Amino acid sequence: MARMHTRRKGSSRSRPPFRSTPPEWCDMSKEELEKHVLRLYGNGVTPTMIGLTLRDQYGVPSVKPILGTKLTGFLRENAEVPEIPEDLANLMRKAIGMRKHLASNKKDVHNKRWLQLTENKIRRLAKYYRGTGRLPETWQYKPETAEMLIT
């Protein structure tokens, strides 16, 4: 599959094999994993960083075989999840940084182009989340109010 905003092809990569059961060397129980996930999320750690922490420090290769649901689904059921999904929030942070850069560097045409592409990704992702019900139907990306939504 090709990249979104270039003519280059994407790079192939290895993916973990599909498993419906946890590996035998993973000794963490479901209750123990739930406790760790909720503790980390309570400390303000994002779902992506929770997955990396569980992988690197606790030796959990994947949360789904142990919990039965994905990490974000588990958090949605058991904790207060932010209104804006994590990937959309990360793109909005990136666009805010680009706008700050462009305020002091008005002739940076390359950054201006990348800002347009990033905001296009934000609009496309917001359209997807509105369709799936994760965002309200009236939600719209506005660069002026994006910083207030993120913080």
What do you see in this structure?
By secondary structure, the chain is an all-alpha fold. The radius of gyration is 19 Å and the shape is globular. It is built from seven helices and no strands. The chain has helices at 30-42, 47-58, 64-67, 71-78, 86-104, 109-132, 143-150. The longest helix has 24 residues, at 109-132.
Briefly characterize the structure:
Helices cover 58% and strands 0% of the residues. The chain is mostly helical.
Count every helix, treating DSSP H or I runs of 4 or more residues as helices. Answer: 7
In helices, the fraction of residues equals 55-70%
What integer value in Å does the Rg equal? 19 Å
Write down the secondary-structure element order: HHHHHHH
Taking pLDDT < 50 over at least 5 consecutive residues as the criterion, the unreliable ranges are none
The major beta sheet can be summarized as: none
End-to-end span in angstroms?
A: 35 Å
Identify the overall geometry: globular
Provide the β-strand percentage band: under 5%
Assembly status: single chain
Query: Which structural class do the helices and strands define?
Result: mainly alpha
Number of strands: 0
How would you state the average pLDDT, rounded?
90
